[in-house]
Specification:
The protein has eight helices and 72 strands. By secondary structure, it is mainly β. Strands 19, 20, 21, 22, 23 and 48 form a six-stranded mixed beta sheet that branches. Strands 2-1-4-5-3 form a five-stranded mixed beta sheet. Helix 5 packs antiparallel against helix 6, helix 5 runs parallel beside helix 8 and helix 6 packs antiparallel against helix 8.
Length: about 1150
């Protein structure tokens, strides 16, 4: 192999060679008088390079070339010589050979690892839904749009929901849905959440359309609108529609207002644009005269520290020509307007209602009504319940069949039956409501959307469908403990925090019994001793924090300054807390926790006392600490607090080394436990949110940060790496999409430089320390990734809209070598003996299940990479124990066993597809054979292998590889090594006996059937003796068979009518000995001894029958009348 090396010569004839820091003794000679080039425009006037190649230790100059971006040593512009000998060039042979394979292999990681699957573990508890709609004429079918979780559909009144956007939508947040009344197959979806929070709100990418009721989708443009609040469609023409585009939340933009299409979304026209800060948040069409449309235009926006709701651009508008032109409505309305909603009555189109945010100090807002189609207005009420927290709510709907029944959605859902004079709370499934669809043909039927999902009612809102069957939760952070099974902790937006097992041993799924509420609230960081998580510290907004005693099921509030901060400006509060204020447990200091405000707080006594251990570690810009909401309604829940710590990280290597990151872009480090702090913010880093910090598990000086500027409408990624405690930084974003802003970066615990990044659009992966990234989505849906954690061989992802996901088998990534193209068998992760089952044992699992989380595969998960194989090649896998005994084997050739009711399951088949393949050995011994067309009410599965090391051998064509598979004891089981040994010996012996029995039964029965057919041909008198002997033998064989097998049993319940015979009883004993927690009890031992004595007699009878058959067979052959061949 030849190695190309870049070399530079300086004036003193010294040669410098850069070859990845490796060394090799070589000599160099110049081939004749070589003129070396130089180019000031490329290399600079004083630098030039040559290419040389290593051949058997001698390096030859082969071509002169200027190379930029390599190391430079000043040298002359020209240089020629006859011969140079350099004796002390230190380069390794290995490095030279490595250079023969330049790092130019491009691998699509999603394709390469397509057999590796994420699994959704839940919890199944709905997250925020901004919109929902039904289908007129179909009371069973509804659509739900979620925040970050995509689009969902139910066809059973909301009892079960299925995602229908995965694989089609490029973003996850849905703001509007419309199904035309004239064509239920057409569905329009507007992307981007319209209830624009400062946290957990996600922008969209325009409009999608389906013409087959959601089976497939096509993108229809309007990408730059970012947030779409409503879509209305002409009642008789499904191709005519209008879109309410709120527009960019964090900046001015021209892509907002009202858009109209008359060709089903192929082309669009902006028919109402007010200014670059004003978008449309509501449209209401007169369905009796669709040329009449009402609209609410909303001047709004956000800064990281403030929500702006209202201004000169806000106003109500009306069109009488289908939206082509618009007239502003003013008579009787406030002059100062914030967010508004407008709704025209379908049953009385002259009556129009409007809900208006205005100056709260002047009490100018409220519910207004027009009885002359918007010509003039009067206020009905200024009830604060209707207009509170206006930027988040202000949703108004009129019963399509009764103009006096109106609904207002706010923190509660409110209904008036007298035109808005009096109000009642609507029963519901959650708080904080955002959308309502009422069936125009049946007012009892509706779907409501809130912070917990969407729910369907068919009885005027008395009862609703559940919201605990959709995995659309929005989580902020991940923490994990070291229990078995380990638990994942996180705060769910709009709900409680959660502690959930990463797997369940109670069955095949992770259900509500496997998770529980934990400490703190919706925005909680959760902290605890991972080895003893009895006490969990959890926070919530405005700095509230508690310690939960998980054993006592009670908590204690431990707020460092127990002051009510709601309603106060950030500059006036003692501690400024982030909405998602960090709390961490110290690995190095016993019983010590840290809590981030604008300063770092420390407690060593579970919150009895707190101590400040830092100065203000933020920019502390007072002008950004004023009112959280302007100009008409304040917002002071805590999400707009600014100049706060957003992340705290303790070095896992060194006591006293800690990093902090703020929401305004500062990074600090202390190396002395907080006595002194150094600002290590990357040079030139703009104001941003430091959302995550990661100290490398491999190098104490290496640290990563994940930054984001989405609150400045900058969606570019922002990952940085330092190898010197933050003194210098390198940006590491190459390969991450320009619109995939970053929230988290983690390094693998085992493989150095293997990095995982969580972005707004999914997961990315790097094998080279962040120099290059690729998407690593696999089967993970497009959803914002808010946190990642590597733990016990798993990669855990927290999402904003699809709950928690786990990638179990990252050992494949740790062992992956992209240059390996031949046969490769990966060493599997150690597997635990465990009860339960999992859909992940399937050959190509989806990673999702209806109504419950998915367990990891129960078994040894084996990955193997195959080259291109011939059609005639076979792939085989054998499992052998420590003694070399084969206990299970598999093949790429499918078994050809005939199916019958109660038959043993076929052995799973190995894939022989080129590339990476996945196979799960369920840890069981070989399946015992059945008896064709006989139903035995027992399992034929072999028992599970005992803890130990097993050898896996993979053969593909002429190639072979082996690896070890380790099975571990389940720490929850009381089973000892001696118990396992006794159990394994018993089960091996018993299963072996059943295998012999059934094979013998099948063999003798086959011969008996042949014999009976032959007897039919022995009609000649000269065969009388033979016939008599054959009849006698057949009768005895049948009697033996009847003692062994109950052939009348053909179906499941036949055992109740036709009692078991010997082999079924023996198999039942085996099944009753096998248990989730293995143990051989004395009754099994005693019964096996009894059965073995009976079997000895039966086996001797069978041997005698076979001997008689052999004699008869010889006679039949000699008589020339045939023979028994099988």
């Amino acid at each position: 192999m030849h190695s190309v090396i870049a070399v530079q010569l300086n004036a003193n004839c010294t040669i410098g060679i850069n070859l990845s820091g490796q060394n090799l003794f070589v000599s160099i000679r110049v081939i004749r008088g070589l003129h070396l080039c130089s180019s000031a425009s490329i290399c600079g006037s004083n630098n030039f390079f040559v290419f040389i190649r290593a051949i058997r230790g001698t390096v030859h100059i082969i071509r002169g070339l200027c190379l930029p971006n390599l190391f430079y040593i000043p040298g002359p512009k020209q240089f020629s010589m006859q011969k140079i000998l350099v004796a002390a060039l230190l380069l390794t042979t290995a490095a030279a050979n490595a250079q023969t394979k330049p790092d130019t292999i491009k691998v699509d990681l999603n394709k390469q690892f397509s057999s590796v699957k994420w699994r959704n573990i839940g919890p199944f508890r709905g997250g925020r839904s901004n919109c929902g709609t039904g289908v007129p004429g179909d009371i069973n079918t509804y659509y739900m749009g979620t925040t970050g979780g995509g689009l969902w559909k139910t066809d059973d009144l909301g009892l079960n929901w299925t995602n229908i956007s995965d694989g089609y939508f490029k973003t996850g947040s849905v703001g509007a849905i419309a199904v035309p009344e004239s064509d239920a197959n057409v569905v329009y979806v507007g992307m981007g959440e319209h209830a624009v929070r400062g946290v957990m709100t996600h922008h969209g990418d325009g409009v999608y359309k389906s013409t087959d009721a959601g089976k497939t989708w096509k993108h229809m443009g309007l990408e730059a609108t970012q947030h779409i609040a409503r879509i209305v469609v002409h009642p008789k023409d499904p191709n005519t529609l209008l879109v309410a585009a709120q527009g960019a939340l964090y900046s001015k933009s021209k892509e907002r207002g009202i858009y109209k299409s008359t060709d089903g979304g192929v082309t669009w026209k902006n028919v109402l644009f007010v200014n670059e800060n004003t978008g449309c948040n509501e449209l209401s069409m007169d369905m009796n005269n669709p040329r009449i449309i009402y609209a609410s235009m909303w001047e709004h926006g956000r800064k990281p520290w403030q929500v702006i709701s209202g201004g000169a651009g806000s106003g109500l508008y009306k069109s009488v020509d289908g939206g082509d032109t618009w007239q502003k409505l003013t008579t009787g309305l406030p002059t100062e307007m914030g967010k508004m909603s407008i709704a025209v009555s379908r049953s009385n189109p002259d009556k129009v209602y409007a809900l208006i945010e205005s100056d709260s100090e002047k009490e100018a807002g409220g519910l207004f009504v027009s009885n002359n189609a918007g010509a003039s207005w009067s206020r009905i009420t200024n009830d604060h319940r209707l207009i509170q927290r206006a930027w988040y709510y202000i949703e108004l709907f009129v019963d399509p069949n009764n103009d006096q029944t109106i609904y207002v959605l706010s923190a509660p859902a409110l209904r008036s039956r007298d035109g808005g004079k009096t109000w009642e709370n609507l029963s519901g499934t959650h708080g904080d409501y955002h959308d309502l669809w009422i069936n125009p043909k049946n007012s009892n039927n509706m779907i409501i959307s809130n912070d917990g999902g969407s729910a369907v009612s068919v009885n005027f809102g008395k009862t609703w469908s559940p919201q605990n069957q959709m995995p659309t939760a929005q989580f902020y952070r991940i923490n994990v403990d070291n229990q078995f099974p380990y638990r994942i902790y996180g705060g769910q937006q709009d709900n409680t925090s959660v502690s959930i097992q990463h797997r369940s041993f109670g069955g095949g799924s992770i259900t509500a019994s496997d998770w529980e509420a934990s400490a703190g609230g919706e925005s909680a960081f959760l902290a605890f001793d991972p080895n003893d998580p009895r006490f969990v510290l959890g926070g919530s907004y405005q700095g509230t924090i508690e310690v939960l005693d998980t054993k006592a099921k009670g908590s204690t509030n431990i707020m460092p300054a127990p002051i009510q901060y709601l309603g106060r400006d950030a500059k006036d509060i003692k501690y400024r807390y982030n909405w998602n204020a960090p709390i961490i447990w110290s690995k190095h200091e016993p019983n010590t926790y840290y809590h981030g405000a604008q300063v770092l707080l420390k407690t060593t006594d579970m919150g009895r006392t707190w101590k400040e251990v830092s100065p203000d570690l933020t920019r502390n810009e007072k002008e950004k600490q004023g009112k959280g909401g302007v100009p008409y309604t304040n917002e002071a829940v805590g999400a707009e607090n600014y100049g706060t710590l957003a992340y705290v990280m303790e070095s896992p290597h060194e006591k006293g080394v800690m990093y902090t990151g703020s929401d305004d872009g500062y990074v600090y480090v202390t190396k002395d436990g907080g006595a002194t702090w150094t600002n290590i913010t990357p040079a030139g880093l703009q104001e941003c949110l430091i959302n995550a910090i990661e100290v490398s598990p491999h190098d104490k000086a290496t640290v990563y940060i994940a930054t984001t500027r989405y609150k400045f409408n900058d969606h570019t990624p922002g990952l940085y790496k330092s190898t010197d405690y933050g003194k210098t930084w390198t940006k590491i974003n190459n390969g991450i999409a320009n619109n995939a802003f970053t929230r988290v970066v983690r390094e693998d615990e085992v493989r150095k430089d293997l990095l995982y990044a969580g972005t707004e659009l999914g997961v990315y992966l790097s094998f080279d320390g962040g120099k290059n990234w690729q998407p690593f989505q696999l089967n993970l849906p497009v959803t914002p990734i808010t946190d990642l954690r590597v733990h016990k061989g798993d990669l855990i992802a927290a999402t904003s809209g699809r709950s928690f996901w786990v990638l179990d088998e990252i050992h494949v990534l740790r062992q992956y070598n992209k240059e390996q193209t031949g046969l490769q068998l990966y060493k599997p992760e150690d597997a635990y003996i465990a009860n339960g089952y999992s859909a992940m044992n399937a050959a190509n699992p989806t990673g999702t299940a209806r109504g419950a989380g998915v367990n990891p595969a129960n078994g040894v998960v084996l990955y193997y990479n195959l080259p291109e194989l011939k059609a005639t090649d076979t792939v085989t896998m054998t499992i052998t124990d420590a003694s070399g005994t084969v206990i299970r084997s598999f093949s790429s050739v499918a078994e050809s066993a005939a199916y019958y009711d109660g038959a043993p399951p076929a052995n799973p088949t190995l894939s022989k597809q080129k590339g990476l393949n996945r196979f799960v050995w369920d840890m069981r011994f070989a399946t015992m054979p059945g008896i064709p067309n006989v139903y035995i009410e027992s399992s034929y599965a072999g028992h599970k292998a005992s803890p130990g090391t097993y050898t896996v051998t993979l053969k593909a064509g002429a190639q072979q590889q082996t690896t070890n598979a380790v099975i571990l004891m389940n720490p929850l089981y009381p089973t000892t090594a001696a118990d396992y040994s006794a159990y394994d010996a018993f089960m091996r012996a018993a299963e072996s006996e059943v295998t012999v029995m059934h094979n013998l039964v099948n063999k003798l029965n086959g011969k008996r059937l042949q014999l009976d057919e032959l007897i039919k041909n022995l009609t000649d008198a000269k065969y009388a003796a033979l016939k008599k002997e054959a009849d006698s033998l057949s009768k005895d064989m049948k009697a033996w068979d009847e003692d062994m097998v109950q052939r009348k049993s053909k179906a499941y319940d036949d055992v109740e009518n036709f009692p078991n015979k010997f082999t079924a009883n023996y198999l039942f004993m085996i099944n009753q000995t096998e248990s989730d927690i293995p143990r051989v009890n004395q009754p099994s031992i005693d019964l096996k001894k009894e059965y073995d004595v009976q079997w000895l007699v039966l086996k001797q009878r069978a041997d005698a029958l076979e001997a008689r058959l052999s004699v008869l067979n010889k006679k039949l052959s000699e008589a020339g009348v045939g023979a028994i061949w099988k």
